[in-house]
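Quick one - inputs below.
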Amino acid sequence: MSMNSMKLLLASATAISGLAMSAGTAFAQEITYMCSSDGTECATAREIFDRFQEENPGVTVKIDEVPYKAIVESLPVQLAAGDAPDMAKVTDLGGLSEYYLDLSPYVDAAYWEKNFGGTLDWYRKGPEDKGIYGLHSQLTITGAYINKTLFEQAEVEVPGPDATWEDWAAATRDVAKKTETQFPMAMDRSGHRIAGPAISDGAKLLDENGVGILVDEGFTTYVKKFVEWNNDGTMARDVWASTGGSAYQAADKEFINGQLVYYYSGSWQVAKMDEQIGDAFDWEVVGTPCGVGGCTGMPGGAGIVGFASTEHPELVAKAIDYLAQEANYAEMTAKTKNIPAHAAVAAKGVEYSDASPAAAAALNAWSAQVSKISPVAYAYQGYKNNRAMFNISVERITQAIVGELTVEEAMDRAKEDLKQALAETK
Amino acid sequence: MANPVKFLTRTRGNGLGGLHWTDWLSYFYLFCGVLLMFLPVIWLGFSSFKTEADLLRFPPRLLPMAQETIVVDGYDDPLPLYRIKGGEHEGKTLAQIRRIGIIAQMVDPAVPDERLKINIKEREPIESFRLATENYTELFEKFNFGRYLWNSVFITATATIIMLIVNSMAAFALSKYQFKGRTVVLALVIGTLMIPQTVVLVPLFLISKELYLTDSLWGVIIPGAATPTGVFLLRQYMLTIPDEILDAARMDKASEWKIFWRIILPLSAPAIAVLAILAIMWRWNDFLWPLIVLSDSNNFTLQLALNAFQGDLNTQWSNLLAMTMLVLLPIAIVFAFLQKYIATGIASTGGK
Amino acid sequence: MLAVLNPLMRLIEVPMKWMQDILGLKNPAWLFLLPNLILFGLFAFLPVIINFVYSFTGSDGILLADRPYVGSRNFDYLLDCSSYLDPNSCRDDFFWRAVHNTILFVILQVGLMVGFSLLTAIVLNRKIRARGFFRSVFFFPVLLSPVVVALIWKWILQREGVLNAWLEAVGLDSFNWLLDPSWAFGWSVFLSIWAHMGFYTLILLAGLQAIPRDVYEAAMMDRASPWRVFRRITLPLLMPTMLVVLVLALIKGVQTFDEIFAFTGGGPGSATTFIIQYIYNTGFAGTPRLFGLASAASIMLAIVLVILTFAQLWANRKNVDG
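Output:
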């Protein structure tokens, strides 16, 4: 009861301050967009928002460009503390869903459902939720890149599309040996990255009720292989073992420098590869190796969301909707070299105008991978607490690699960790 | 029997009569110390002027070298120069157009129309000494370095001034007045001395957030000013100022504030100077608290930027090392000028 | 500096004088204390109290209102071990790994650092040329920021770093130093000593110089051997300073975070994760953010620090008395 009167008081207080705000800021409205960039995302958003500002005089979209780490670590604290920007580019799509602003009152819901149908669910709180929350600006899929020049120099045949992890491990070891390359394989230090291969080996990750279980036979099978490869030199140990906690670590620099034959990462690296490898060597996208669970990568990516705490919900919705318009979305996708999540844009095909032949081929190869994504991977990506599961995977698998725990112990601990995390999450 | 341990005692070589072997040992020890303490920093200084390619070179060299380039007709960008050490073009100096796998496409600058194919093992880059000052200039162009510098300077200066004023006022009250509750306040100050900021991060963040200090420079400045060390240090010093001086001033009807400002502060100048140096050092090097409070990279301090760029995947060591040098430089300068004060200050306070 | 401060001071004088007159205070001590007490209250005492409350609550909410009371669950979780000597037997193995790492780190780091500091102070206390220069050389790293220190050494020790280049130059194999748990730990100890020993050297040097000369002269007259002089005179007279240095180094050592975090990130695995990083990982870097657990851990740390601080105060008093 007192809670209710408190809420009432709060509501009226916000209403009054809201009034005061709108009176004071009728001429100039500013919203803040917290953005992080893998390449050109923020700059492209700036260009499009500049047009948006021209079309809507008095409106300013301020872009705070932050390191990706800030989005992962600081933004959730800010949100919990009620101290968030108006909108942000997020990757923990489900985990932050309670803070999202529902755009459906302000946008053409039919247009959104038609074009973003598949990804809208990732932002929702549960199966009953029918709101529209996020614009999936960057559809990504995990998978591998290979240094084709090294394969050619070693005269080793590139394994085919239905090759298994073991085939790839053997082939890349061979290549690395013959070409005196430092590392055969490497995978980003991320629980999201390792999920695709694990699913391909039969991991289910969620139970039949859609609650996280993480560890099962399939998951353990892959982890065992992965740990072994880290210790026999097939995988670059530097990536997973060199740091602690759940910190993200990539191996793109090694790949770009030609020290790595096979790099398991994802589609968002294309722009960087294209720009930084140049003509140093030929590289190619080969997707995810196969196992009993298919040849699936993890879908994912980033989306632009508004937060319910904003003082300008309508404006935020308008800004996001502006980005979602077909022409703008197509421009954004082309300039940032991403795979479109917009059905109409995807159907027409994106013209990656300033992409090199290598990048264009890579993007097409990625688009082809989308059809191989397993339903398990989609479910995991849409699961609200997947971030906790990602972190647990990284921490515990690293311990197994370093030798602090055996694989079995690490898997038992991972299960316990997940129980604890689910119990503490609201 | 006495000789081996003579080294450990205060006795030493007898001046003009040459050096005793324990003196040689001492100098040897100190010389090793200098190498170990200084060499990494000097190496860093040299390397911050190397190009990225030169930095990746293994084994590394001391002096910064860069590959020579030449402008060839028909090519927009300057091309890197190589000396050919084998094959049919041995001995020639060629410019490289691009490299595909193990084959490099090259061109003779004298005959720009003809393309040559060279195995990459048969060429060797031509290099000369060059300072890669672009490592530094790029910081300002690409990395918003000026902004971080300003944030760091602003935080350091403001926090130091606030801390000096507030702490000296409290120290004055605690040293020159008798009042009820003085012991309690002193006990509380000692209490805070015991609980370091690091163990109360979570609530500290919550409070800062409630006061709208998060993601603002003031969120670093204000909580940082609440250090008990300064109060302690200044109080100990002010205790040594004779009360008669204050009484004489009070006779002249000086207000208490004037006494504080005109008499106490000038007389405590040495202690305040020490505290100022310590405060500058603390704030400039602050890391964990800013890491938690600041999230917008426009608010980052140099330390945060340095750490963020280390993790940032596009970053190159060349820029990172240059940035490290620039972060290190102000402290090195302060140190060079004030090292005597710092030394005596730290020795006398026992640090903290 | 004075040009800024003078007008500022004059500005403050007006309300201060006014308050003093109005309130008729002969003794405006509280007026002078007020700003400091506000800052202390808000940013030092209050957090301690809230922290205490936090440690008895659960969930991942940040506001106290969102956090249900869970009794001693957080403490139970941290302390649930079948053997405190084996982190693998503990429910929260990360916490106990951090505890073990911290204890081992502190023992090694403090022991070696105080030893080297004492040696350096003794050498510097001899009649040597350019003493000021040598003293500053050893002190210089103290001024560097933890991130800078970490970067310098990380860069030297990396796979293709300077150290490996030297090793190869003398015909040894290069080694990936920071990938091996024991080596990473060892280098963390080294780095921490490198960065901080100048500070303790300085204090010990001041302690050595404070020993009155006539004591030595008396000893010389008695023809005592130098070793005897050192053991019977220097060491006992230096003992109070040594005690302060030891306790101070212990307190700092237990709180080690910045430089190691930037150096190894706590890895490989959790080989260099110390208590403060455990708190940071649990409360800030993880998902979900377990503030309750982090607070409980920090309270246990605070207890240790309080004990150490009392030891310091006691050492300080001994120092003053002796």
